[in-house]
Amino acid sequence: MKAVQPTVKKKRVPFKACAPEAQQVMLVADFNDWSDTARPLKKDAKGVWKTTVTLAPGRYAYRFLIDGEWVNDPNCDEEVPNDYGSHNCVKVVA
């Protein structure tokens, strides 16, 4: 008999970046294999770029790529050092 695995409840997690002058904002993270094209954000009328990602509980490292420049989320509560001499933001999904 096969063991029944508990289902992990995923949550919709919002990400946003305020960059009214930007032409392109990407969410680059460990949950998308650090792809700089996998998750574009959409700009609203106030210049805030937004997206929502469905994630399982855990800790995730991420950064924004705004017009080709790496930018940390100013609303992030936690950062961790990365291999490039800067820091990644951390999003905790409970």
Compile the SSE list and pairings.
Blueprint: E1 11-18, E2 25-29, E3 42-43, E4 48-55, E5 58-66, E6 69-71, E7 79-81, E8 87-93
Antiparallel strand pairs: 1-4, 2-5, 3-4, 5-6, 5-8, 7-8
Rg over C-alpha atoms, rounded to the nearest angstrom: 15 Å
Distance between the termini: 31 Å
Question: What would you call the structural class?
Answer: mainly beta
Number of domains: 1
Number of strands: 8
Strand content of the residues, in percent?
over 45%
* Fraction of residues in H or I helices: under 10%
| Main beta sheet strand tally, sense and closure | 5 strands, antiparallel
- The CATH topology assignment is Immunoglobulin-like
CATH-level-4 superfamily name: Immunoglobulins
Point out poorly predicted stretches.
Answer: none
H/E series, N to C? EEEEEEEE
Average pLDDT confidence is 94
Assembly classification: single chain
Overall, the morphology is globular
